[in-house]
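[step 3/7] fold_predict: job queued, chain A
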Amino acid sequence: MSINRTVSDYYKDELMRISKVTPLAGSSAFLISTKQKAALVDSGFAFCADKMIENIKAVLGGRPLDSILLTHSHYDHASGSGRCRLAYKDLKVVASEYAAKILSKPSALSVISELNQSAAEQYGAKFSEGDLGDLSVDIIVRDGDTIDLGDVSLRVLEAPGHTKCCISFYIPRNKTLISCESLGASADGYSVAPGFLVSYKSSVNYIERLLELNIENLFVPHFGVLRGEACAEFMKRALKTSEALKDLIVNDYLQGKTVEEIIEHYKDVYYNGNLHSIQPPRAFYMNAEHLVPMVIKEMVLPAN
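[step 4/7] structure written:
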């Protein structure tokens, strides 16, 4: 497994620092630290969480990690929380109500464990079910709620589309958004992997809302930060890419292709080297098995 032990700053000013602490590209986590508090936005994979915690400690030193802010409940964003609880005893996990519900289900925890095992094998690492620990949520937040980090406050934006439980975190003082995957994901900051799994329309509505915020610092899932004009440019590409994938699925369906055939077409067009680096094949297929039927149901069947 290629572990990144180098900690670097994505953003830093006199009040706030946002650091890269994830040890693997597919494991999503951003550390926000102010003079008063520190919060981890997403906690990545469980199987490499101990390496992530080493990176967190390199930034914080002996200071505590106060909270984990989960954008959603997927294994590559939420499953490192249990290991973090062991390292930081007073840590609070913050998420949407639906994410808390998902992370309390034994069936969901079983899938999270299974996907960690699969990803660990791909990276040549080890994982056992007991490594998950406690993934429960302590604090529920909703759209418009404010999260206090001392000198900096974050506003919660509900953002269904990738999942029903997705939320993002907006920092008004410097127009910074740490987005969930309803925006999509990226390995290079340019190409966009569409993120809609439960609703294409909701994802598009979310991205259009973001464009109205005139964001100056955009944290893209699995990539890092974009600045200035690159933020709106990425969002516009996200809209175009999402529409193109929607059209591919609809056109294939209307041509009589099976769901399995559409998934393979989707894979051939979109699952390139960039996406492969942030999403293991097992996870791609699991997502596609939700995404393709959802688009058909949402965009075609209601018209029949």
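[step 5/7] annotate
The first strand starts at residue 8 and ends at 12.
The domain at 8-239 is CATH 3.60.15.10 (Metallo-beta-lactamase; Chain A).
exit 0
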